[in-house]
UniProtKB/TrEMBL annotation:
Similarity remark: Belongs to the PhzF family.
GO cellular component term of the entry, any: cytoplasm
Name used for this protein in its record: Phenazine biosynthesis protein PhzF
Entry-linked InterPro entries: Phenazine_PhzF-like
Organism this protein belongs to: Pseudovibrio exalbescens
UniProt superkingdom: Bacteria
Catalytic residues of the enzyme: 46
GO molecular function: isomerase activity
SUPFAM superfamilies (alphabetical): Diaminopimelate epimerase-like
Matching Pfam families: PhzC-PhzF
Length: 303
């Protein structure tokens, strides 16, 4: 049986930038093992498998796999799938069109607003289904610095210090002094466990306030030690958890706050992630992640 697939670049408005995503359609009948094998075949940070929704009022059910494991939730697959399903519904050449896409993910139901404009990249913004909260402990500043290949004195800025958060996936968050330090980071897997523990989803998000563009709030890099070290060009689930970091250290006042995060610049895959926080009574009441996505290829699988 053949199955259709598409490739998108997510969190960018330009082809061959942002974070790559494979979307496999017509996935009824695929086993978990077959989905995992196809994700390894694509060998991208994530592959999405589209299934009919359990609730007929929803748009689709999503299964999200890295080359090594299934994820309960991920940001760039959510943005990419929402834009793709809207393109499937309205067409590539549709005039300006707003729509709502409701996705069933393992973590929960995710509601996405999508905007399509003729001749432009699609934009999707979704309500984060799980608000950020503190996660598992991490190592000392010295062990973190040793793993990342930087000095302990280069970790931290203002009142920001290393911490962990989850909004579905666990991340260690490490602030560094400036962009020059961020560019120097080179993780050593032999020191990973001492620095960041030994968890199923074990990733570190390194960030600073200095940015490449005047409109951005932070620049970040994300590395994972899931069987091998790899760097991700744009990580929406990390940005969702990062909302808890911003809330903890920057203490935004009540109201809606917008932050733009740069990622992937050191990989030659510049990406831009929008993070929006609603603060009420000094607490996060809601979060949204947004970004653009570009369809770059369609094809057919014969397995």
């Amino acid at each position: 049986m053949s199955r259709r697939y598409a490739l998108l670049d997510v969190f960018t408005n330009k082809p061959l930038e942002g974070n790559q995503l494979a979307i496999v359609q017509d996935c009824n009948g695929l086993s978990d093992e077959e989905m995992q094998a196809l994700a390894r075949e694509f060998n991208l940070s994530e592959t999405v498998f589209l299934l009919p929704p359990e609730n007929p009022a929803h748009s689709a059910k999503l299964r999200i796999f890295t080359p090594f494991q299934e994820l309960p939730f991920a940001g760039h697959p959510t943005v990419g799938a929402a834009v793709f399903l809207s393109l499937e519904r309205f067409g590539n050449d549709a005039p300006e069109q707003d729509s709502v896409v409701v996705l069933e993910e393992t973590l929960g139901t995710v509601r996405c607003g999508v905007v399509l404009k003729q001749g432009a990249a699609g934009f999707a913004e979704f309500d984060v289904p799980s608000l950020p909260r503190p996660s598992a402990p991490m190592g000392t500043t010295e062990s973190i610095a040793l793993c990342l290949g930087i000095e302990p004195t280069e970790i931290g800025f203002e009142n920001h210090h290393p911490t962990t958060m989850t909004a579905g996936n666990h991340f260690a968050f490490v602030p560094v002094r400036d962009l020059s330090v961020l560019k120097m980071v080179s993780p050593d897997p032999s020191h990973w466990e001492a620095a960041f523990g030994n968890l199923d989803h074990n990733a570190v998000y390194i960030y600073c306030r200095e940015t490449e563009t005047a409109t951005a709030s932070f620049q970040a890099r994300m590395f994972s030690n899931d069987e091998q070290i790899w760097e991700d060009a744009a990580t929406g689930s990390a940005a969702a958890a990062f909302g808890g970091v911003v809330h903890a250290f920057d203490e935004p006042l009540d109201g809606t706050h917008h932050f733009t995060i740069e990622q992937g610049f050191q990989m030659g895959r510049p990406s831009v992630i929008d993070l929006e926080l609603d603060i009420e009574g000094k607490q996060i009441r809601a979060q949204r992640i947004g970004g653009q996505a570009v369809l770059i290829a369609r094809g057919e699988l014969f397995c």
